[in-house]
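Researcher: Here's my situation. A collaborator sent me these components and asked whether they could plausibly form a single complex. I don't have experimental data yet, so a predicted model of the whole assembly would be a useful starting point for our discussion.
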Amino acid sequence: MSTALSLHRSRKRKNGVMMALCVVAAGIGLAWLALILGALIYKGLSGVSLAVFTQMTPPPGDAGGLLNAIYGSIVMTIIGIVVGTPIGVLAGTYMAEYGRFSRLTTIVRFINDILLSAPSIIVGLFVYELLVRPMGHFSAIAGAVALSILVIPVVVRTTEDMLNLVPNALREAGTAIGAPRWVVIRSVAYRAAMSGIVTGILLAIARISGETAPLLFTALNNQFWSSNLNAPMASLPVTIFQFALSPYEEWQQLAWTGALIITLTVLGLSIFARSLTGRREDR
Amino acid sequence: MSAASEAVTASSMRTREATVRRFALTDTIFRSATRLSAILVLVILGGVAISLFAGSWQALSKFGFSFLTTEAWNPVTENFGALAPIYGTLVTSAIAILIAVPIGIGIAVFLTELCPRPLRRPIGIAVELLAGIPSIIYGIWGLFVFAPFLQTTIQPFIIWVFKGIPGLNSLFAGPPYGIGLLTSSLILAIMVLPFITSITKDVFDTVPAVLKESAYGIGCTTWEVTRRVVIPYTRVGIMGGVMLGLGRALGETMAVTFVIGNAHRISASLFAPGTTISATIANEFTEADGELYTSSLVALGLILFIITFVILAIARYMLLRIDRRAGA
């Protein structure tokens, strides 16, 4: 009797210890997020001023802003999205609509999942070999192409998943009134899956706007204002990289401020994207 | 009257036929466009592989197999070997996974078994936001906040603890720089944590409620159910998640570049600065002068590509298996 009781007690104790450890694990996860965000706000907020958004990146030891870097980031992100999104949506459409059970779809899904988590610096090397070396110089175009290659797998994945969720009865209803396949896809399937596809695009924007590695040797960096797509262009992440590792205090401060701007943008985008699909799940 | 109506029918037939033909043509065009885009995904991966092979050919043909086994990395004498970066990549990723897996599984258990329902989604999202933070942010935070903290508190303490223990004292030896292999591993652990957590949570959700309830029914504690029912049932899926996290850790660039110290040498101590494949490429590529130097860096990229491709392929295969079982 007493051994059974003590066994019971030791099992309960073990359970208590392990569950406490699980709570600690969750605490660790949340604490890291708080620590990182706290440090960013503490170090970055003091540098936020109007000058950050209106002045160019300064020479060492001078005051200035991040205007050209912010502009470059926005330009390359937009081109990356504009190039990558149609390809991703179309590929996802093939996988979910025309070729749902084809061999090609199985292969593309597998390869796409690998591209989704492939190191982004590899993409940078690829675009360097593909565009920078033949053209002979770094350019904003090359940077945008590298970003679009990162966009494609994200959009393919979400488009396929979301189209697969569209009930077949909807498609059949469209076909029954004589609409051809592409009209059904465009006016029925896309419409039903719209919020999901938009979520995918937003997540893709969130992902590429913080990417540094693929820009390092494609778009390079630029100390000055440049809107020439065929020339090196500054971007926020690469500027942060350069400024943070410099010995100059003004540059380091700008790096922290830039880091705060990027993080708030990216986290804002991903929370917004999640809220779109979140409502969907509740319905 | 009848002739007129026949003419109308014929003309409407003609327009109808034309419309159907137009529809069919548009459909063919749209279908081909989607198919081409799907094929483009394959072309991109093929292009990556081919361009890396082509770019690294010069280095690989000069150094041959010894590229993998040479520690030297000397741009002046143009003698390059990949051993130190490969060592750094594997060691930092392995330690990161060792730290992140228990914590990730712990969070997944907390979210599926312990957490009050209204808090589940917010906490789940908060952990996933860790994955959304760009890696350069981890880098700048690691260099200016985390590394100094390690240097002044944790590292001296660990060195003091392991001073007298043979074997371990060489693992934790040397002056505490703050930056180095261990710091990189810790940062990587935080970065892969959300991936492991979210996949573990997903596969935990695939466990049939009946299985868990029958274990609870015979009086098992939550821990016993997790340890004896949930984890064995989802083993393959968890392994897939771990591999996915490993793939991420191996290729992670910016965060590691900030905190690893960029030293091309292999040291026994985890506190010593080292380098990884991706950090070497990020640091040296734009400054590399000479074809052979550039080619050697691309060869490093090729090695990283092959390692991550294999790891990620295994991960996907494992996750596919658990998907099939959940679907069946």
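Model: Some features of this prediction you could bring to your collaborator: Chain B has a mean pLDDT of 89. Chain B has two domains: 1-63, 64-327.
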